[in-house]
Amino acid sequence: MVDESGGSLNQFNYDRLNEYFEQQDILASAAEIHGILSGMIAGGASTSGDEWLLLVSDLIHEGQSFKPDCKERLKELAEIIRTAMQDPDMGYSLLLPHDNVPLHERLQGLVGWVQSFLVGFGVNQTNMAGLSADLREAIDDMVEIAKLDFNVDDEEDAERAYFEIVEYLRVSALLCFNELGQKGKGKGQPNKVLH
After folding, report:
1. What is the pLDDT of residues 31-49, one digit of tens each?
2. Which InterPro entries does this chain map to (predicted)?
3. Domain containing residue 40
């Protein structure tokens, strides 16, 4: 489910982005970073200015400042995510390892993405009571998916389940954005993260 066709994620090829973040001494994978940014944006966090980068730094870079080039890369990625989530054709997709990568590695990427999405989402949304029933159910499902320990016995069934889960997460992220992220339009301030 990675767009390599020349779409907006093309410049953020999973492998190249992973390599880039490794060079920046960032321990999080491209899937985890995409998940955090997606969760923040879907939950209504602002990505205007530089303040949100301090929060991302706490989450993925042990509070250390990002180099200027890395800041620009993260801003670009956040803008691509926001634009894709606003796309009326539902052009948003998860940034995960390529489909030709062994399934267990893709599942690791998937679990990392959903765990990170929940962290990013929780930055702005700490009270579930105000959410619609559909969104509460989607978040509960994400929590369960994040806990899964995938056992790959039947490769064909596991492949099918993988793609169904990816699609479910994609639609759930869009549901979050449509209910919460659209309100902020990038203007709100993120809550402080409690460690």
Report:
1. 999 999 999 999 999 888 8
2. YgfB-like, YgfB-like_sf
3. 8-184
